[in-house]
């Protein structure tokens, strides 16, 4: 029985990872390759979720391993796209089932190996690379170097391989990609550069590597935020200290009028506030809501911050 949207009992059981129910349905004749309206089969769904045991059952029962959905994604691509390490076992099962690693999906019409390399998923890339047939054409003989051939191309979110590696915190991939990148300041659809992402996430070693290669420490996103502001927002003290040592402007405001200090106060990062004060930050600027750092600290009940700003930064704001 199939609902109007293409859902079946088997697909629902796979979605909820109900292995016993799925096995019972298959024993009673459930159509294993029946897809929903988006062309997603039970196997593709299970592969995308990283459901190792479910994938084993479906493959053993004869699921077609190369059936693509309406966007051209096969189960192998679904297992590869997120890069989560718990998907590696799913990848091995599909590769052992002789899935076609040359099929190309919607992701820039690239095969899984290229997707894995582009996204910096080195473990996935290596696993697929090791299974390549002898006649498979690969221009460069190492997956991490293959990634560099796509280093400045963007995916649908405007992310480059370098941007994705910075978001995931893989410093080795970042350093490898930096060798080939022509523009390390390229922005994604949010206007964020790799440095902004690494600063926000707290990847200190990556921030250093990017700045050493010439990353623009003052480049703003579409929201007007700088890498320093995002580091202050997240409370990454080491990164804040490093960016300041490299000359980052301490008082730059974003589109809402929030400064690095205001972001640090909003999120209760006292150590960051202290560092900014040491560097001569001004607490006088107000954001679009008319709030300054001191008033925000007062509203949030941050006594230590209030005392600090009152005595060291903003005496002119006091009655």
UniProtKB/TrEMBL annotation:
Concerning InterPro entries, the annotation shows: Ankyrin_rpt, Ankyrin_rpt-contain_sf
Is the keyword Glycoprotein assigned to this protein?
no
What protein am I looking at?
A: Unnamed protein product
- The keyword Ion transport appears for this protein: no
The residue range of the signal peptide is none
One matching Pfam family: Ank_2
Tell me the ranges holding the ANK repeats: 5-37, 38-70, 71-106, 157-189, 190-222, 223-255, 256-288
């Amino acid at each position: 029985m199939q609902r109007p949207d293409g859902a079946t009992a088997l697909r629902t059981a796979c979605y909820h990872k109900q292995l016993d129910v799925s096995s019972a349905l298959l024993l009673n004749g459930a159509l294993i390759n029946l897809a929903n309206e988006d062309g997603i089969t039970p196997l593709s769904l299970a592969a995308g979720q990283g459901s190792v045991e479910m994938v084993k059952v479906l493959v053993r029962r004869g699921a077609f391993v190369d059936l693509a959905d309406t966007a051209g994604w096969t189960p192998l691509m679904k297992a590869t796209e997120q890069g989560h390490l718990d998907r590696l076992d799913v990848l091995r099962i599909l590769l052992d089932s002789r899935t076609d690693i040359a099929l190309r999906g919607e992701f820039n019409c690239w095969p899984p190996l290229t997707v894995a390399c582009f996204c910096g998923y080195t473990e996935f890339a290596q696993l697929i690379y090791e299974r390549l047939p002898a006649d498979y054409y690969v221009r460069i003989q190492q997956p991490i170097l293959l990634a560099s051939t796509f280093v400045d191309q963007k995916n649908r979110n405007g992310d480059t391989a370098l941007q994705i590696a910075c978001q995931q915190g893989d410093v080795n991939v970042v350093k490898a990609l930096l060798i080939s990148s022509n523009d390390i300041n390229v922005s994604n659809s949010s206007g964020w550069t790799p440095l902004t992402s690494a600063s926000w996430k707290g990847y200190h070693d990556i921030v250093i590597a990017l700045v050493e290669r010439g990353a623009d420490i003052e480049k703003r996103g579409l929201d007007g935020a700088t890498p320093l502001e995002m580091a202050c927002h997240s409370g990454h003290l080491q990164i804040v200290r490093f960016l300041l040592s490299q000359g980052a402007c301490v008082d730059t405001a974003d589109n809402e009028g929030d400064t690095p200090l205001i972001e640090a106060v909003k999120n209760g990062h006292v150590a960051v506030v202290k560092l900014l004060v040491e560097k001569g930050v001004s607490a006088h600027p107000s954001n679009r809501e008319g709030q300054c750092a001191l008033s925000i600290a007062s509203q949030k009940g941050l006594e230590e911050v209030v005392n600090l700003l009152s005595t060291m930064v903003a005496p002119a704001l006091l009655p």
